[in-house]
Specification:
The structure holds 2 protein chains of 2 kinds. Chain A folds into 6 domains: 148 residues, GAF domain (Beta-Lactamase); 107 residues, PAS domain (Beta-Lactamase, 2-Layer Sandwich), CATH 3.30.450; 105 residues, Beta-Lactamase (2-Layer Sandwich), CATH 3.30.450.20; 69 residues, no CATH class; 153 residues, Heat Shock Protein 90 (2-Layer Sandwich); 127 residues, Rossmann fold, CATH 3.40.50.2300. Chain A is 39% helix and 24% strand. Chain A is built from 20 helices and 28 strands. In chain A, a hairpin with a 3-residue loop joins strand 3 and strand 4. Chain B has one domain: Hypothetical protein af1432, CATH 1.10.3210. Chain B is mainly α. In chain B, 35% of the residues are buried. In chain B, helix 2 runs antiparallel to helix 3, helix 2 packs across helix 7 and helix 3 runs parallel beside helix 7. The chains are: A alpha+beta, B mainly alpha. At the A-B interface, helix 7 and strand 8 of A face helix 2, helix 3 and helix 9 of B.
Chain lengths: 788, 187
């Protein structure tokens, strides 16, 4: 306790206040002033302690900011209690000083809210006189002024910092339209320094073409209206225009007066670029060959909070909903017609983990024009969103299935073709020896009967191998230009006979359509399809056969181009999906045992394929079947076949020499025997090399080459070409069970070549030899003979 | 003098400062739209400003049981309600300094396609100010609480405005409005 202290007199108090005020006027820091204030109060009022608390009304808190004084903890405790009481009074709206018999407490006003509380207190009772109170009031007044000044300086600095650092040009304009302030962004945007711009008319910021825009705006804003945001063209110093976003607002003082106008200008160039990029993204989204749907997960923990953000047009088709009208709706409220993936939980997982999920291929949209298949993938996007991409793979899958099917047919075809080839060699031998046996058993009726049976069986076997070869695309085709329309016309009678009276035949040929095909094989195709149709219509019906010229654009089965289209449709039983899938497989038949070989449609398929064409079939149970054949159309005219040549004159062949080349020993042996019997001289070779050696050594002339088409190392036609150099007049007959490379065109026969199809009977061979040797120049000639 | 009358009227329409602020925003929107659409005539801009603020002044003549009815108005009530257009226009014709204000107020319920009231005007026969005010007013009404419904989110209100483009509202005005709205939302 400071009992010796003497309270200062009124004059001293005035002097102390003056000093304190002078200190504050020197822009002394507020903290220094607080420190000084407590000292001044304590010393001049001669009390034990003076504290200043920072007060927070909102928090109802006090915090000791500064204080002086000696004494026990109890006095500090008293000071805080009194400060608290003052705060309570303040909250109750009482701003008068609090006086007790030991203390005086005043509120220190701040800028907009109270700054704190000053408490002066002692341990002894005393009366605070009016001058005492005035003195403390004055100290507090000086503090309040200083605090307000400091705040205003800080606010101004803060405001200045914001104005300086913002990216928008901020221009203060007087009500008369003069530029008063011009920030850094304005300098950059208008390419004009502040010292140059300030003081000039803001109307110059508008292009000359829009010179009268500014003053009406200024007038409106000066009246209190806030304008914008508005897109307008403004003018840089150099005269270039800048696309800008403009806002104008009045600067209003606390008493309501409008002193000036603030104009903020944002450069829209970057936004324009961003907009363009955004539009581009939008265009890409709309034009990409996939459906995209974007969901946003509003609540990370709740998959049902997924909302539709956007979707492209393609998505509408996938989900069967017009999604553009559903933006913002919840997942559960959007009626997605998806039979496949619509799994909000999985989508939510993508958002949470930021990991994409691949759903693989899913079937979608069942019940809307058939099932479609989509490759589905969900990927994370910014802003808690997930994008779902549906890539349509239906056609791909369809093609894969077709390819698989085609490959299967191809493999079976190869097998069948291979077997048939060996079989044909065997049948040639059986036929050959049977025929050679016939004269030897002349008169033995029973033996002749037996031989007939052998030949009949051999013939049946040959029919089978022919079909197998056709299916395996291993037969030799003689393509020629054919007009499908006239071809159908001439086939009408055959068809009528075939299908019987219960079935009505309707043949339509629209325009002449020229295709390149083997007429005999095409007839076989038509015949097989007609038989198939007839068997599908046991109770009668209609058979439509139609030819047409079509142009195919994009099609999963048929490559683009012009085609002669041949359609055969019936009104019969039709096929179910599983039968349809196997329709072209050999030995697959739905007919009762003994009625069909299961080779009819296989043959059709093989012939069409080997002819470079395509075949499709449509059928539904009870709805009949439609087979459509596409053969490449050509720009040629049909050559009318020449009249049948006059009968062959028999002539002696004894003087002629034949070079026989055949790798199958038994066949070679048989042929050699047949030729020898006819009196020909036969040179035998098992392959082209041996044949060349023989020919080199042979001193006479070789008149005829009879050769297999396909042989090791060299083809028959190559051998023929080499021999022709030595023997220019040499004639050639080709023999074959099939053409291995018939499809690839690897060893095509010369157009006019004579060809003998195995199996053949000796008489046919001799007939062929005679024709060739007699003909001056051998023309195209078919001896696609069949054993009888 | 005009300013005083405006302030008095503003106060008459609403004493609530929040509502007044809202109304001022509507005015700002209307004038900004006019500026974006190329209006530079000072007195027309002021007329649009005033009309945007006072277009519903005629509602003072409509009984409050109709004004504040939470249910759908009957045909008779609706006919009564329609009167506010002419009442307001007549009032403003008397004391507004701008001759353009009354025609704007009179036409602010007309539709671009001619289906509005009171005269069934069409397209450009409707004053531009009225075409602007009807869009702004609709957006304003949708985004404010009404006796018969709560306010609608701004994004949805914008969709509604868009959906009426070319039928109720001038397509050019809606375009400008959407642009101004987008800009405001972004910044």
């Amino acid at each position: 306790m400071n009992t010796t202290a003497i309270q200062a007199g009124p004059r001293a108090l005035v002097s102390a206040i003056a000093d304190f005020g002078a200190l504050a006027n020197r822009d002394t820091d507020v903290r220094v002033l607080l420190d000084r204030a407590v000292q001044v109060v304590a010393a001049n009022l001669c009390i034990d302690c003076c504290h200043i608390y920072r007060a927070s009304l909102a928090m109802h808190e006090l915090e000791l900011a500064d204080g002086v004084g000696r004494g026990s903890a109890s006095i500090r405790c008293d000071a805080r209690r009194i400060a608290r009481e003052t705060l309570d009074r303040l909250e109750a709206g009482i701003t008068e000083p609090l006086r007790t018999d030991t203390a005086l407490s005043l509120v220190i006003d701040g800028d907009s809210s109270p700054f704190g509380i000053l408490v002066a207190c002692g341990t002894t009772r005393r009366t605070f006189t009016r001058p005492d109170e005035e003195f403390v009031r004055s100290v507090v007044g000086v503090l309040t002024d200083a605090i307000r000044r400091a705040h205003s300086v800080r606010d101004k600095a803060r405001f200045q910092a914001v104005v300086t650092s913002t990216g928008d040009a901020i221009i203060e304009v007087t009500k008369e339209g003069r530029i008063f302030n011009w920030n850094a962004a304005a300098e950059a945007l208008f390419e004009r320094p502040g010292h140059d711009a300030i003081g000039t008319s803001a109307a110059a910021l508008f292009p000359e073409s829009d010179a009268d825009a500014f003053f009406p705006m200024l007038a409106l804003v000066s009246r209190g209206t806030t304008l914008g945001p508005m897109e307008m063209d403004l003018r840089k110093t150099g005269g270039n225009t800048v696309e800008a976003l403009l806002r104008l607002s009045p600067i209003v003082l606390s008493d309501g007066r409008i002193t000036a106008v603030s104009m903020s200008v944002r450069d829209l160039r970057e936004k324009r670029l961003a907009d363009r990029a955004l539009r581009m993204h939008g265009d890409i989204l709309e034009n990409m060959p996939a459906a995209v749907i974007v969901w946003r997960l509003d609540d990370l923990e709740d998959p049902s909070s997924l909302r539709l953000v956007t979707a492209n047009r393609q998505a509408d088709a996938v989900v069967g909903v017009s999604l553009g009208e559903r933006i913002g709706e919840r997942f559960a409220d959007v009626p997605l017609e998806l039979s496949g993936p619509d799994d909000p939980i999985a989508y939510a997982t993508v958002v949470r983990t930021s990991e994409p999920i691949d759903f693989g291929e899913r079937s979608t949209g069942a019940g809307r024009g058939g099932v479609r298949w989509h490759q589905v993938r969900a990927f994370p996007l910014p802003d808690r969103s997930v994008g779902i991409v549906f890539h349509d793979v239906t056609d791909q899958r369809e093609l894969a299935t077709q390819l698989q099917h085609a490959q299967r047919l191809e493999v079976i075809g190869r097998l069948a073709g291979g077997v048939a080839h060996d079989f044909n060699n065997l049948l040639t031998i059986i036929n050959g020896y049977s025929e050679m046996l016939r004269p030897k058993i002349d008169g033995d009726a029973s033996a002749i009967e037996d031989l007939d049976e052998i030949e009949r069986a051999s013939h049946s076997a040959h029919q089978l191998t022919r079909q197998l070869l056709a299916f395996g695309r291993r037969q030799v085709l003689r393509p020629e230009p054919i007009d499908l329309r006239s071809f159908l016309g001439s086939s009408r009678r055959m068809l009528n006979r075939l299908i019987g009276e219960d079935i009505e035949l309707c043949v339509v040929g629209h325009d002449p359509v020229i295709v390149c095909a083997d007429a005999g094989q095409l007839e076989q195709v038509l015949l097989n399809l007609a038989v198939n149709a007839r068997d599908a219509m046991p109770a009668g019906g209609k058979l439509f056969v139609e030819s047409n010229l079509v142009e195919i654009g994009t099609d999963p089965v048929v490559p683009a181009g012009k085609y002669g289209m041949l359609t055969v449709s019936d009104t019969g039983l039709g096929m179910d999906a599983s039968t349809l899938a196997r329709a072209f497989e050999p030995f697959f038949t739905t007919k009762e045992v003994g009625r069909g070989t299961g080779l009819g449609l296989s043959t059709v398929h093989g012939i069409v394929k080997q002819s470079g064409g395509h075949i499709t079939v449509k059928s539904e149970p009870g709805e009949g079947s439609t087979f459509t054949i596409y053969l490449p159309a050509i720009d040629e005219t049909v050559i009318e076949p020449e009249p049948v040549t006059s009968p062959v004159r028999i002539c002696s062949m004894a003087s002629h020499t034949v070079l026989l080349v055949e790798d199958d020993e038994t066949v070679r042996f048989l042929v050699q025997k047949v030729l020898n019997r006819a009196g020909l001289t036969v040179l035998e070779a098992r392959d082209p090399d041996q044949a060349m050696r023989l020919a080199d050594r042979f001193t006479g002339s070789i008149d005829l080459l009879i050769t297999d088409v396909v042989m090791p190392r060299q083809s028959g036609s190559e051998l023929a070409a080499r021999l022709a150099m030595r023997f220019p007049a040499i004639k050639v007959i080709y023999m074959s069970g099939y053409m291995r490379e018939a499809c690839s065109g690897h060893c095509k026969l010369p157009p006019n070549a004579m060809f003998v199809q195995k199996p053949f009977v000796p008489a046919d061979l001799i007939d062929g030899v005679q024709r060739v040797l007699q003909a001056g120049t051998s023309r195209t000639n078919r001896t696609d003979q069949q054993p009888m | 003098m005009k300013t005083i009358s405006m302030d008095v009227l503003t106060a008459a329409i609403s004493s609530d400062p929040a509502t007044r602020e809202h109304m001022n925003r509507v005015r700002g929107y209307a004038v900004s739209l006019a500026l974006v659409l190329g209006v530079r005539n000072h007195s027309l801009l002021e007329a649009i400003d005033e009309a945007a603020l006072l277009h519903d002044i005629g509602k003072v003549a409509i009984p409050s049981h109709i004004l504040n009815k939470p249910d759908r108005l009957t045909t008779a009530e609706f006919e009564e309600m329609k009167r506010h257009v002419d009442v307001g226009a007549d009032m403003l014709a008397q004391f507004s300094l701008h001759a353009a204000v009354a025609p704007i107020v009179r036409a602010h319920h007309e539709n671009w396609d001619g289906t509005g009231y009171l005269r069934g005007l069409q397209r450009r026969t409707i004053p531009l100010g009225a075409r602007i005010v009807s869009v702004v007013d609709c957006f304003d009404a949708l985004t404010s609480d009404r006796p018969y419904r709560a306010r609608i989110p701004r994004e949805e209100a914008l969709q509604i405005v868009r959906s009426r483009q070319g039928t109720m509202y001038d397509p050019a005005v809606v375009d400008a409005f959407v642009r101004v709205y987008d800009m405001e939302t972004e910044s």
